[in-house]
Amino acid sequence: MKPTVTWNEAAARHLLSRACFGGTPEQARQLAALPLDKAVDQLLDKAANAPGPDRPEWVREVWVNKLRRYADMPREEYLVTFRRASTRNDEELLDLKARWVRHMVKTPAPLRENLTLFWHGHFTSASSKMFAVTQAFYQQNETWRKHALGNFRTFLEAVTLDPGMLIYLDMEESNKDNPNENYARELLELFALGVGNYTEKDIREIARALTGWTLDAPPGTVKPDRPTSPETARSLRRDGLVPTFVPSRHDAGIKTVFGKTGRFGVKEVLDLVVAHPACGPHIASRLIDYFGAHDPQGTLKVRMAKAFVESRYEIRPLLRELFTSPEFYAPECRGNRIKSPVRLLVGACRDFDLQGEITPSLAQSTVPLGQELFNPPTVKGWPSGEEWITSTTLALRYRYGEVLLDGKPLTGTEPLGRIRGTLIPREPTEARKTISRLLAIDAEKAGSTSKDGIRIRFEADRLVPAELANDPAALVEQLLRRVLVVKPRDASRSAMVEACKAVPPAERAKLVARLILACPEYQVE
Predict the structure, then answer these.
(1) Closest-CA residue to 93 (of 508, 449, 501, 438)
(2) Quick one: 407 and 508 in the same domain?
(3) Residue 46 to residue 71: CA distance in whole angstroms
(4) Residue 488: inside a domain, yes or no?
(5) How far apart are the C-alpha atoms of 268 and 512, rounded to whole Å?
(6) How far apart are the C-alpha atoms of 68 and 267, rounded to whole Å?
(7) Could you tell me if 414 and 443 lie in one domain?
(8) 170 occurs within a structural domain
(9) Is the same domain home to 358 and 400?
(10) Whole-angstrom distance between the N-terminal and C-terminal Cα of the chain?
(11) Which residues contact 298 (CB under 8 A, 6 or more apart)?
C-alpha cells in the first residue's frame, strides 16, 4: 500500500513550482482545498486540453527549400541566395524561440509547456546541425506538445518520422545498401530503453528495419525542373519536409530484434521497443529526474512502470502516479533543485507578473546561462541540477535582474566565458563544433538578436499594495511569501529590509524583487 502524502498549501506550492514553473499563494490555496488526486487531475486535465501558441506567419503548407543550389547557378548568384536564406532562417528561429517563451509565460496551463520542454530535452534535435530548416523545428515543437501527455507508442512513431529527427540523426538518407545506425542507437540508448538493455546486433537490425524513409515534397507538388548537382549536400537539394517511404530503398529482409524474428519495418520495431521490459522504467526514471522526486529505492519507478504497462503505454498515468506519490513530496526533494535557465526565466516572468513583450532578445537571454532553446548541447539533451552552475553562470544568474527588471542585456558574456559553462559537449567532435560556433558569432548576427530589445517591465502595484512601500519589513515579507517555495534565511530577509530602508519608497518593491532574483533561495525549486 502506497504511503499517504501530507497534502497542504506548502505541498501545493511545491507541486506548482516543479510542474508549472511556479504558482501564486492563491493558486496553491485553491489546489490545497482539493484532495490530492483531484488537484493533480485538475492540472492534468487543464494541460491535456490547452491550446498551443499561434502559428508563425512564416510557416508554409508546402515548404520550399530556399537554399537549393542548381547545377547552372553561378557562384556569385548562389552566394546572394545563401546569405538571404541564412538571414531569414536566423530571424525565423529567433522568432520561434520568442513565441515559445511567450507561450510558456502566458499560458493558463503551464504544465503542458513544461512537459513540452521535457520532451524537447529527451528527444533532442539541435539547430547547430539542422541548418536552414526552421519549419522543421516548428513542426517538431508542435508534435512534442501534441503528444506530451498521450500514448508513448504513438508518440515514438511521431518522433521517429519527425522531419527534424530524420535530419538530425541522419535517417533520411539511410537505405538498404548503407543503413545508418544513428537513430537506432539513440532510440534504444536514450529515447526508450537505456544503456545495457540491448545489443549491438539489435541496433544494426533496427537500423535495417528503419531504412527507406526520406523527406520529400507533398504528393502532387510541382518540383523545380532545373537539375541539381548530385554532389550537392542534402540540405541544399531537399525537396520538402514530408516523411516519405520509398520501398526500393528499404531492406525488406528478415531481421532479429530482442530475440524475435520477422520482416520488420518502423511499426513492428516500435511495437517491440515499447513492449520491452526496460521501456517503462526508463521513461519513469527520466520523468522522476526531471521533476525531482526522491526515489532512492526505486519504488516509485516500479509503480510508474507498472502504470505505464497497464495503461498500454499512456504517459498521463505515469505523471499521475508521480505527482500523487510521497516520493515527490518528500522533504529531501523540496527546494533543493536548481532551476534550469529557461525555467528561471519563465518562472520569474510568471512570479513577478512582468508585463510587456517577450522578444527574441529576452528568449536568448538564457544562452549565456547555458541553455539555448532548439539547440541542446548533445543528443543526450540538457544537463540538470548542479551542472547548471559554474563560476561563470552563477555570477550571471545573480545579475539576471538586469535583464528582467531593467531591460538590459547581460554584459561580460563573451564566447570564452560561455565555453567554460555547460554548453560544451563532452564528445570531442561535438565540442569542437560548438566552440567554433561560439567563436564565430559576428557583429551582424549579434545585432539580429538584440535589435528587438528587452521590453518587459516590473509593475509593483500588480504585486503589492502601494502603502506597503512605507513598511520595508512587510513589503519584503509579502514578496518573499509570493515567490519563494523555500523558507528564506533570516540573513537574507534582514539584508533585504535594511536595503529597502536606504532607498526612497517608490524604489523599494523593485529593489526587493532584484534582491530576491539574486538570492540562492530563488535559484532552487
Answers:
(1) 449
(2) no
(3) 53
(4) yes
(5) 58
(6) 33
(7) yes
(8) no
(9) yes
(10) 29
(11) none
Which of 434, 457, 480 is the C-terminal boundary of a domain?
Answer: 457
Residue 181 lies in a domain: no
Q: Provide DSSP, 143-196.
A: HHHHTTTSBHHHHHHHHHT-HHHHHHTT-TT-BTTB---HHHHHIIIIIIS-TT
Residues 353 and 296 in one domain: no
Q: What is the DSSP letter of 468?
A: G
| Alpha-carbon distance values, 113 to 104, 288, 361, 378 (Å) | 6, 17, 20, 22
Based on the fold, state whether residues 346 and 424 are members of the same structural domain: yes
Q: What is the pLDDT of residue 237?
A: 81
Residue 456, sorted as left (phi over 0), alpha (psi -120 to 50) or beta, turns out to be: beta
- 498 assigned to some structural domain: yes
Q: Which residues pair with 245 in a beta bridge?
A: 213
| 309 lies in the same domain as 404 | no
Q: How far apart are CA 87 and CA 96, in angstroms?
A: 14
Please state, in angstroms and rounded to a whole number, the distance separating the CA atoms of residues 262 and 282. Answer: 26
Structural domain of residue 287, as residue ranges?
9-33+278-333
318: its cell numbers? 505515469
Split the chain (525 residues) into runs of 10 and give each run's mean pLDDT.
84 97 95 98 97 93 85 87 89 96 97 98 90 92 98 98 95 94 97 97 98 93 81 79 96 98 98 98 97 96 98 98 97 92 96 95 94 92 88 89 89 46 46 45 39 87 93 96 92 92 94 94 93
Instruction: Verify that 390 and 356 share a domain, yes or no.
Output: yes
**All three cell numbers of 294:** 526522491
Q: Tell me how long the chain is.
A: 525
- In angstroms, rounded to a whole number, what is the distance separating the alpha carbons of residues 137 and 165? 9
- Of 525, 513, 522, which Cα lies nearest the Cα of 403? 513
Number of domains in the chain: 3
> Which residue in this structure is represented by grid cell 539574486?
518
SS3 43: helix
* 350 and 452 co-located in one domain: yes
Which one of 457, 478, 496 terminates a domain? Answer: 457
Instruction: Give the C-alpha separation, 402 to 103, whole Å.
Output: 22
Q: Single out the residue of 279, 9, 21 nearest to residue 153, CA to CA.
A: 279
